[in-house]
Amino acid sequence: MALADFGEGPVVMSAAEATAEIFVMAFKALKPRERKVVLEKIVTNAALAEDLADTLFLEKRRRQPRERFRDVLKELKIRV
Predict the structure, then answer these.
(1) CA-to-CA distance for 79 and 48, rounded, in angstroms?
(2) What is the pLDDT at residue 63?
(3) Among 12, 52, 67, 75, whose CB has the most other CB atoms within 10 angstroms?
């Protein structure tokens, strides 16, 4: 855990969250052309592009209502 203060008072966050916060702050500080280059590097790297796609998919699904596992199996016509 790390304690950080980004102008809104101290916040307790994990080391991963603190690293992500610093990365995002640095990314926002880039000039538009520099941001474009970083994004191009991410999407042209197969592993990073897949991670990004997975994350976006999960975030989209996070807002969907939950379904019971048995109902999903039934909808997919999978018998157990």
Answers:
(1) 36
(2) 85
(3) 52
Structure tokens at 39: 């994004």
- In this predicted model, what pLDDT tens digit does every residue of 20-45 receive, in sequence order? 999 999 999 999 999 999 999 999 99
Indicate the length of the chain as a whole number.
80
Residue 57's pLDDT band (cuts 50, 70, 90): very high
Domain layout of the chain by residue ranges: 1-30, 31-80
- Angle, vertex CA 24, rays to CA 47 and CA 20, nearest 5: 65
Q: Among residues 40, 39, 43, which one has the least CA distance to residue 53?
A: 43
Tokens representing residue 10 in the block: 């101290």
In sequence order, the β-bridge partners of residue 5 are 10
Q: How many Å apart are CA 27 and CA 42, to the nearest integer? A: 13
Q: What is the rounded CA–CA span in Å between residue 33 and residue 17?
A: 26
Q: What counts of helices (H) and strands (E) characterise the chain?
A: 4, 2
